[in-house]
Amino acid sequence: MADVFYYVGVDVGTASVRAALVTREGLVKSTAEEPISIWEPQSDHYVQSSTEIWEKCCTVVKEVTQSVERSQVRGVGFDATCSLVVLDQNFQPVAVNQDGLRERNVVMWMDHRAAEQAARITNTGHEVLSRVGGVMSPEMQPPKLLWLKENLKESCWNTAAHFFDLPDFLSWKATGSLTRSLCTLVCKWTYCPPEGWDASFWTSIGLEDLLENNFFKIGSVTCPPGSPVGGGLTQEAAADLGLDPGTAVGASLIDAHAGGLGVIGADVKGFHLPCENQPITSRMAMICGTSTCHMAISERPLFVPGVWGPCLSAMVPGMWLNEGGQSATGRLIDHMVKGHAAYVQLQEQAQQRFPSTGENIYTYLNSHLSLMAEVKSCSAVDLLGSSLHVWPDFHGNRSPLADPTLKGMVIGLSLSQTLDDLALLYLATVQALALGTLHILENMKKAGHDIRTFFLCGGLSKNPLFVQIHANATGLPLVLPDQTEAVLIGAAILGACASQDYSTIQEAMKKMAKVGTVVQPDPELQSFYERKYKVFLQLFAHQREYQDLMNQK
Question: Fewer Cβ atoms within 10 Å of its own Cβ: the N or the C terminal residue of the chain?
Fold first, then answer.
């Protein structure tokens, strides 16, 4: 057994930490998951604990590696949400809220407390904004840092000595190295290789103190994802994780980008896809869970209004990345379904239908919609959504409008609140999210991207209705991975590259990412979705009109 080697991928998502033990061929041998706490001390403030997150990382890694020898684990890779971790000069947590609870030292990615700071940064018109779609998002780190300086100067800002993106915190915790991944710094912090930090930007927004000691607090040394970090696991981290000291650790990725690595490079020969025999630039990775990220890569920089990037070497070394996204997808579906008057009835019906199989409410809703379509003689479930329309920006619009102030809309409601009505609202919400993806896709195409196939992963990719509607609405085939845990595969690819068992990320992707199922669009629904898309865009136009009317003096 000693000549069989493995890699460990660790994924820190919004609400849980997961790990997988993965073979050289990309097969997942075991997985483990632990929940992590989220606190909401006030509206739009979401915080976590880096201490708890690391403890949960150690728990899951020990669990997935318990059946193999330590020497068989060749490398470890981490991915995480792009949350902001604050530590003092002794690398101890610093509180990021007025409550002063030190352990709560992580400003989460979805924390929108810095919306006003983000708007001010956008209004500077600084040239670095061209690489984030022209608009600074409150989900990026500069506005969050500015908020901390302006609101917690004594208790946080003056005490802080290290600001990490969460993926970089994990690689530091594992190796003791302060080297940052280009993925995090380029995508969320405005770093631009090869020039590096733009001092004029930080000065223009009032954060000139970060220039001190060659930007030491936010990162002076960088490397591409998958590069070996430090000397591998330190003695302390190895003991925490149950692995050998010196085990290779790859420079980390943001969680969505790890999902992109886990799917976008798969060998598609024999699947008759339009991206076959085409460069990898003809593919888009969609990582869909609590939120959704749309990843497209190019050989030259492409500037897409309202879409983040172009970012060099942020996912695939040497390639430029554009990242579109929707701030609330799985979270929006849950919000719409669980807030409906018929939700309790739905739970009861789902429990009766699937008493022992563990199937969830969405499996029940999907089957319920199929029955409704049969009763109404609809040739496809999609057609049930012809008179109910949703604008899905309940948590603002990340792309392509880049407007965090936008709100959600539902058009076509009646007084009825039956289970059928709940099912239709669920359907209309999924359709709206798919049309939002089409909106992003069209803007990327206008800027020069030639996307021919989607590659999906994440929790929502396991919902067949969500997947089929995205194929139907965009008119493009969707590829689902052979291994359902594509984000963990992506993290493991980092470990494989750091161990130097693979010479490049591209080589590792091709060998470790595999095609599972291909979902084709239904051509008979093309005209239906063309009409529904026109309605979708009208909802946005009307919302702008309403806002303008109400803002008149």
Answer: C
